[in-house]
Amino acid sequence: MPPTPRPLRKLGFLTIGLFDEADPGRGHESTLEIIELGERLGFDSAWVRHRHLQYGISSPVAVLSAASQRTRRIELGTAVIPLGWENPLRLAEDLATVDLLSGGRLNPGVSVGPPMHFDQVKGALYPGTADAEDFGYGRVERLLDFVRGEPVTDFSGTEGFETFSDRVQPHSPGLGRRMWYGGGSLRSARWAGEHGMNLLTSSVVKAEDPDGPPDFAQIQLSHIQAFRAAHPDGEAARVSQGLVVIPTDSASPEQRARYEKYAAERAPRTAAPQGPARLLFAPDLVGTSEEIAGRLHAHAAFREVDEVAFALPFTFEHEDYVQILTDMATKLGPALGWRPGV
């Protein structure tokens, strides 16, 4: 097996945190237990997805605040918060608060664009201002400025018995260097680099060249290269890859069959770009750790990263995630050259 140019330095995982509408508390508790397990197994990071008006985590910052009090070492990230649902100033306050509570372990990932089903939700989300809202990169720039300590008002000082700051409080030094952008296009990758962010890549990219072959790994590689070319840190700029990876080393026969069925049902969308946006999906990687490691070592984009946040499948049971994470940490990670944190 050929070595990777960038040995795997950080192993992370990503969960959507699904729950039953009849018992949402149990689903959230399961997510926290999975994060605790990740720390015990030595994972470097745990990331949570973001879902609004669905049966998944709608408030990842609140969930990670709880996780920060039940862990001591593992980094905690969001992948990603869609800023179309957020007020950047208020979000900056929440992020800084949780970062301080975690001891500087928060890694906020964000993205832009209008909220999903915006026409149906805008009356509740932005009554009276929906048409004036900016859902572009400017929203991220505002968040970055607030997190990094830029002034938000021309007033500060004492008024009566109260003291006011001209920047977001609390301020968490270092958080600005741990802001991530979730991008799947060349434009997003370049923009994230130009603005000194870190780049989250996932199992979805835009196949922007209608005449080019739909090669996921090569497209993702081009994004990583464009990001680093634009970033002040150059080749040292941080990139994390988030493919769906399901090791089966300790899985039962029933689990293996279910995992393979899950991947097979999702496989057709990997053959060609999907929809007007020409979204191209990576195949889910299912198999033994040795088999998966071989496929990753041959993956052009994986060979350019030294951090991953492998995505857990959406619809599995808690016990399945325990098995998958355990195999990732004890089998797959070491096969990729990674060593667990302590």
UniProtKB/TrEMBL annotation:
It comes from Streptomyces swartbergensis. This is LLM class flavin-dependent oxidoreductase. It comes from the Bacteria. GO terms for molecular function: oxidoreductase activity, acting on paired donors, with incorporation or reduction of molecular oxygen. InterPro entries: Bact_Lucif_Oxidored, Luciferase-like_dom, Luciferase-like_sf. GO terms for cellular component: cytosol. Coiled coil: none annotated. Residues 28-263 form the Luciferase-like domain.
